[in-house]
Recover the amino acids of this structure.
């Protein structure tokens, strides 16, 4: 029998920019992705979210499909510039109505909404003022969060402030592959600090407004394994843990940065710079839960070579280069690993290990698996989308989740990425994740995949039938 708790939520997830489209309709302001994706050479085959999969106009149809599949919860993000076109100030009531109608539609089908306030689509107006590097953006985020709590807080119990800070700060300010396309670790660290401050301000507002719910933060869960047992590789792997995990988890779960790493960054670059009261703000406004996005582990080795950050955005195996930083560490291919077309290792045990790693460091914090899924090119056979590899992937990871629960982890829900095939930020539509296929040759028609029916069975049996 499955060990999943009685009130465990079986869900699925998406993000606003990747599904909604309607990028300039009904008063919506531009986001940084609306601008960046139109610059030459920034995305695979020049794809952008102007239309995406048109969820903005097909919301009722999509929610009906969620209900048919039996979803108990749906994690989605709100587009900040759809509510506040300039990032602050004047409210776009048409945008508020869209999300209000979405929430009502979900609740009418007994689907619990989980809102992510920020999934990377910063209002361009705020970026023009300095974006995440300036304190005023954190203050604007608090205003935006308060608006969301006021309009939706009576109907929504599960909230997350930010999604994957390591990605939008790392790629935005270090690799330069995301907006604002900067290559400067000092600016990255300061921008990251303002995100943590924005989170703390939003948590403080949540509690001041007495919203009847829980608020958390969503991080990448990426365990690291040294390539060999050499002291150099072990040290490199520990450093990867410190930079890729502890730096992003400690401020929201412990209320402070990892001391040794903070000392190093401030000695090297003088960042992060703290404003008066920042220490107390972080310490006093910690999460109710942590959301974990797990896709893969990384095998780590020492890196005396050059810094390289080339990713695989084509879906052609082995087309990505090494990712690593000179003098620190680099990620290398596990010689015994099984990899996707995008060079991501499939390693379900990492989900169990990662959850227990979080429990060991942070105690009995409630956990939601807010993303987990397989990016693949799904085969169509006689008109049926036969995504058996996705079923196999999810089955193995649900089993890994079960092991973590048996080991004592407090896991509250599972949200595969994604409910529907959507726009992958840099990979276009070639990389598919969804239970629902979108036919871009036939007016974006929705088609149920084999995995749609499989996950429906998993939900109906509360994880007992896989």
């Amino acid at each position: 029998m499955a060990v999943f708790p009685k009130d465990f939520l079986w869900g699925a997830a998406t993000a606003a920019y990747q599904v909604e489209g309607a990028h300039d309709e009904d008063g919506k302001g531009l986001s940084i992705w609306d601008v960046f994706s139109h610059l030459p050479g920034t995305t695979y085959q020049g794809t952008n979210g102007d239309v995406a999969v048109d969820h903005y106009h097909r919301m009722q149809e999509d929610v009906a499909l969620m209900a048919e599949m039996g979803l108990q919860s749906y994690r989605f993000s709100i587009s900040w510039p759809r509510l506040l076109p300039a990032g602050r100030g004047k409210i776009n009531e048409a945008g508020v109505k869209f999300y209000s109608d979405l929430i009502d539609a979900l609740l009418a089908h007994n689907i619990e909404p989980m809102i992510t306030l920020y999934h990377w689509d910063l209002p361009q107006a705020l970026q023009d003022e300095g974006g995440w590097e300036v304190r005023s953006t954190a203050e604007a985020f608090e205003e935006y969060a308060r608006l969301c709590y006021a309009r939706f807080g009576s109907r929504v119990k599960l909230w997350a402030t930010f999604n994957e800070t390591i990605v939008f700060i790392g790629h935005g300010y270090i690799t330069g592959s995301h907006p604002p396309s900067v290559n400067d670790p000092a600016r990255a660290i300061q921008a990251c600090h303002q995100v943590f401050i924005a989170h703390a301000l939003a948590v403080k507002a949540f509690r001041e407004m007495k919203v009847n719910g829980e608020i958390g933060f969503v991080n990448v869960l990426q365990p690291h394994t040294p390539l060999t047992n050499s002291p150099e590789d072990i040290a490199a792997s520990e450093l990867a843990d410190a930079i890729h995990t502890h730096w992003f988890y400690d401020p929201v779960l412990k209320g402070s940065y990892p001391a040794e790493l903070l000392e190093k960054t401030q000695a090297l670059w003088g960042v992060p710079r703290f404003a008066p009261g920042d220490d107390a703000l972080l310490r006093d406004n910690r999460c109710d839960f942590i959301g974990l996005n797990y896709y893969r582990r990384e095998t780590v080795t020492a890196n005396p070579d050059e810094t390289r950050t080339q990713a695989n955005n084509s879906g052609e195996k082995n087309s990505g280069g090494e990712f690593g930083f000179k003098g620190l560490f680099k990620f290398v291919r596990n010689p015994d690993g099984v990899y996707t077309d995008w060079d991501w290792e499939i390693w379900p045990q990492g989900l169990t290990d990662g959850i227990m790693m979080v429990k060991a460091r942070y105690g009995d914090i409630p956990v939601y698996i807010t993303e987990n899924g397989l990016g693949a090119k799904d085969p169509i056979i006689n008109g049926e989308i036969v995504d058996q590899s996705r079923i196999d992937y999810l089955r193995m990871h649900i089993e890994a989740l079960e092991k973590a629960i048996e080991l004592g982890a407090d896991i509250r829900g599972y949200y595969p990425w994604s409910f529907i095939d959507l726009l992958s930020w840099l990979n276009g539509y070639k990389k598919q994740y969804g239970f629902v296929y979108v036919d871009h040759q036939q007016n974006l028609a929705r088609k149920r995949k084999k995995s749609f029916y499989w996950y429906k069975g998993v939900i109906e049996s509360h994880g007992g039938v896989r």
Observations:
- The chain has a mean pLDDT of 95.
- The first strand starts at residue 9 and ends at 13.
- Residues 220 and 293 are 5 Å apart (CA to CA).
